Structure to design on (236 residues):
């Protein structure tokens, strides 16, 4: 006998939405899309799709990002479920939201070629449809919380970067200024960076040394999301 709690009369659509962060022109940016269909056709939106019956939540989110960027193993974390009764005027829709961090230098050309996609500085976002602004605000709060325990900068920066670039990234994430000497001292003290002999001379003749995150730190961090005591660096 069929259990009555599994009612065939239930009509609910499940969607996956992705909040995609990138570091563009020394600003924290969000990737948005113009809706191609009604309702809200032509309005700015997060990228998302209706969940396919044969896909898990994580698999669906990964496929959305793969179709967009052509990349695999992108940082992706489930954020929250949004299920207010009237959040979508078209029908009852429950949205599971993920937030993602991508290296823009690896995918910029491909994303740029999509006419309906555009990077927006986080502090200059246009009006978004439905409750997407709430999703974005919840995502940045989660990003700020996680970044205090884990070195997430490597997910947004090129593989090699200068310490000023790293500082600017975290200033964008936290929307605050750090003392340069203090930041340099503390970020080096947590022993996650590896200095190279290469220099970036784009902003000065003397140049600034390029750094990378230590490979063993990256692998361990991706494996079990361990903590690396970065709290002291971003304490304010």
């Amino acid at each position: 006998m069929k259990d009555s709690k599994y009612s065939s009369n239930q009509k609910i659509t499940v969607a996956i939405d992705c909040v995609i962060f990138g570091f563009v022109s020394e600003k924290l940016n969000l990737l948005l899309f113009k809706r191609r269909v009604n309702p809200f056709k032509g309005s700015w939106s997060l990228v998302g799709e209706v969940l396919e019956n044969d896909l898990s939540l994580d698999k669906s989110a990964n496929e959305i990002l793969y179709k967009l960027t052509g990349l695999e193993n992108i940082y992706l974390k489930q954020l929250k479920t949004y299920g207010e009764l009237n959040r979508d005027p078209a029908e009852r829709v429950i949205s599971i939201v993920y937030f993602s961090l991508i290296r823009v230098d690896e995918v910029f050309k491909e994303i740029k070629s999509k006419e309906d996609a555009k990077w927006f500085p986080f502090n200059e976002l246009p009006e978004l449809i439905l409750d997407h602004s709430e999703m974005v605000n919840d995502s940045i709060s989660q990003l700020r919380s996680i970044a205090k325990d884990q070195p997430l900068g490597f997910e947004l920066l090129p593989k090699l970067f200068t310490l000023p670039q790293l500082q600017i990234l975290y200033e964008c994430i936290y929307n605050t200024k750090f003392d340069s000497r203090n930041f340099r001292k503390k970020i080096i003290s947590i022993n996650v960076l590896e200095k190279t002999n290469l220099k970036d001379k784009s902003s000065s003749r003397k140049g600034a040394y390029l750094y990378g995150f230590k490979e063993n730190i990256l692998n361990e961090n991706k494996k079990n999301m361990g903590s690396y005591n970065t709290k002291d660096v971003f304490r304010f």
Notes: DSSP finds six helices and nine strands in the chain. The helical segments are 57-69, 104-112, 132-147, 163-174, 180-189, 215-224. Confidence is low (pLDDT under 50) at residues 222-227. Strands lie at 13-24, 27-34, 44-45, 47-50, 75-82, 93-102, 117-121, 193-200, 208-213.
